[in-house]
Design goal:
This protein is mainly alpha-helical. It has two domains: about 15-225, Serine Threonine Protein Phosphatase 5, Tetratricopeptide repeat, CATH 1.25.40; about 230-305, no CATH class. About 70% of the residues lie in helices and about 0% in strands. The protein starts with 17 loop residues before the first helix and ends with a helix. It has helices at about 20-45, 50-90, 95-110, 110-130, 130-145, 150-170, 175-190, 200-205, 215-220, 230-245, 245-255, 255-265, 265-285, 300-305. About 40% of the residues are buried. It has 14 helices and no strands.
């Protein structure tokens, strides 16, 4: 099934890295290859008296082309940084304009940190609209796009955010095995979440004032730096409920309530409270009654499913 959130208004799919690779490396290496071709042509076919002029002209063309391509690459990077921030804000509000802004980066930027965040933003948008299967695919892509040389701390946090959302969306669509696997990895990662790697002194550029050029700052800013443990606990509560493990559901919803209140969005908090109330009712044989009988929102109804 094609992910609708990766399809542009013109029908193109932006999930592949082929186009940004061509734009980046084709633009940077193309002038050099062209210069090599001009030099070979000059040696073989041009009169010896004019070879130097032809080679010099080819060199100037290659240099100008390389600098132009390099300028375009950085222009797209800086434009994408602003668009990804706005895309995240809109995605969290469920505004479909976030989709086009994320596509801008996916079409033009080769860097893994930008692609990871673009996929992540689209995942947030799909999740907010209740398209949980497509959101699961996008959060999986976001984790897979993480750059190899990201600082350990930044990569761990981004990976944990992806795992938390992946576990929640997998549970929402009823894929409890995949949700359980994601949660298992997430729980193993939490104890070392804020530890730095041996080479972070070289790789962590988030405090160097590089702005959009900073790989790790791009990853650190995701969801306004909310605590990734909140999404993991939220996903754990939903998975426990779906599996009929009501004591675990209550424990997940009750542990660190202050942290959960501060880091969950209103629609997430609504569902978590409902899960806790229903789980308590089932544990007490139906005697427990909620303090409110307000119906769930359509989003929460879809997430809890028929379990």
């Amino acid at each position: 099934m094609q992910n609708r959130y990766l399809v542009t208004s013109s029908g193109s799919n932006v999930g592949s890295r082929v186009l940004p690779s061509l734009l980046t490396f084709g633009g940077l290496l193309g002038p050099i290859v062209a210069f090599a071709g001009v030099a070979a042509f000059a040696v073989e076919l041009v009169n010896r008296a004019h070879q130097d002029e032809v080679v010099a002209a080819g060199g100037i063309f290659a240099f100008v082309g390389f600098i132009t391509a390099l300028g375009l690459v950085w222009f797209w990077i800086f434009r994408s940084a602003d668009r990804l921030r706005e895309s995240e804000r809109l995605a969290l509000a469920g505004d479909m304009r976030a989709k086009e802004l994320a596509h801008y980066a996916l079409v033009r930027v080769f860097r893994g940190d930008y692609r990871s965040r673009a996929f992540y933003n689209l995942g947030l948008l799909a999740e907010r609209h209740g398209d949980f299967a497509e959101a699961l695919d996008l959060f999986t892509r976001a984790r897979g796009a993480l750059p190899m040389f990201a600082a350990t701390r930044a990569a761990k946090r981004m990976s944990l955010m992806c795992q938390g959302h992946a576990a929640f969306t997998a549970a929402a669509v009823g894929d409890v095995a995949r949700a359980g696997a994601a949660l298992g990895e997430a729980h193993k990662a939490i104890p070392t979440l804020y530890t730095s790697g041996v080479f972070d002194a070289f790789f962590d550029d988030s405090h160097m004032g590089l702005g959009a050029a900073s790989m790790n700052r791009t990853l650190d800013e995701v969801e306004q730096r909310r605590d990734p443990r909140a999404m993991v606990a939220f996903a754990g509560a939903l998975l426990a409920y779906k599996n009929g493990h009501f004591r675990q559901c209550v424990d997940a919803a009750s542990a660190e309530e202050g942290m959960l209140r501060a880091n969950l969005m209103p629609h997430e908090g609504e569902l978590l409270e409902w899960l806790k109330v229903v789980a308590l009712a089932k544990l007490s044989g139906g005697e427990y009654r909620a303090s409110t009988t307000a119906p769930l929102s359509p989003w929460a109804e879809k997430a809890r499913g028929a379990a």
